[in-house]
Amino acid sequence: VRGSRTDQSILWPLYLTERDDREDSRLTRRRILYYLVQDTREEQPEEGTNRYRLDVWPLFLYEGEGDAAAFQTLALLESFLPRDNALRRSWAPLWTLYRYQRGPDGHTVSSLLWNFYRREEAEGLLAWQLAPLVAYRAEEGGGGPVRDLWLLLGLVQVHSAPGQRGLRLLYLPWITW
């Protein structure tokens, strides 16, 4: 694949621009103070995909691809290892204070303070929790909405479905009516 690469800098490493043009894609990366602020854009016109990533080390990381997006604050190592999925999965939850993800289908998940508060939304689904006090989940089922409420890590559980209601106390068997 043929292409051209262009690098420019102003008062290196104060401001750097890298541009990599190929037949099937274009990558543009702008950096301030080397890795402190990075703005990366990748365009693939044949596939119709555009990726965008903004790193402001160590404050936040924003990624976007089509209708999908992800935001994270604090991002301590992700700027230096951008493609390391194992780091994100295993270590990043230790320092991530707030995380927001939106999938291409509109499914969103947000998490604050290590899942102390968590909210998830999708078509026909709403779930949130304020751990360890309360959690709520509502789904659209075949016959109507199904709702569940948990209090104090499930010590008290309330279930509601079309034509059925249930209560469970101290993890004992369900009381239904």
3D architecture notes:
- The chain is mainly beta.
- Helix content is 3%, strand content 57%.
- The chain has one helix and 16 strands.
- It has one helix at 85-90; strands spanning 3-10, 15-22, 26-32, 37-44, 49-56, 60-65, 68-73, 98-102, 108-112, 117-122, 125-130, 134-140, 145-151, 156-161, 164-169, 175-176.
- Strands 1-2-3-4-5-6-7-8-9-10-11-12-13-14-15-16 form a 16-stranded antiparallel β-sheet, with no helix packed on it.
- β10 (117-122) and β11 (125-130) form a beta hairpin.
- The longest helix has 6 residues, at 85-90.
- It starts with a strand and ends with a strand.
Task: Describe what is shown at a glance.
The chain is mainly β and 177 residues long.
Strand and helix map with partners:
Layout: E1 3-10, E2 15-22, E3 26-32, E4 37-44, E5 49-56, E6 60-65, E7 68-73, H1 85-90, E8 98-102, E9 108-112, E10 117-122, E11 125-130, E12 134-140, E13 145-151, E14 156-161, E15 164-169, E16 175-176
Antiparallel strand pairs: 1-2, 2-3, 3-4, 4-5, 5-6, 6-7, 7-8, 8-9, 9-10, 10-11, 11-12, 12-13, 13-14, 14-15, 15-16
What structural keywords apply?
16 strands; 177 residues; mainly beta; 1 helix; single chain
Taken as a percent bin, the fraction of beta residues is over 45%
Largest pleated sheet:
16 strands, antiparallel
Structural class assignment? mainly beta
**Number of distinct helices:** 1
Tell the overall outline: elongated
Distance between the termini: 68 Å
* Annotation, overall tally of beta strands: 16
Unreliable spans: none
Strand order of the largest sheet: 1-2-3-4-5-6-7-8-9-10-11-12-13-14-15-16
The value of Rg in angstroms is 23 Å
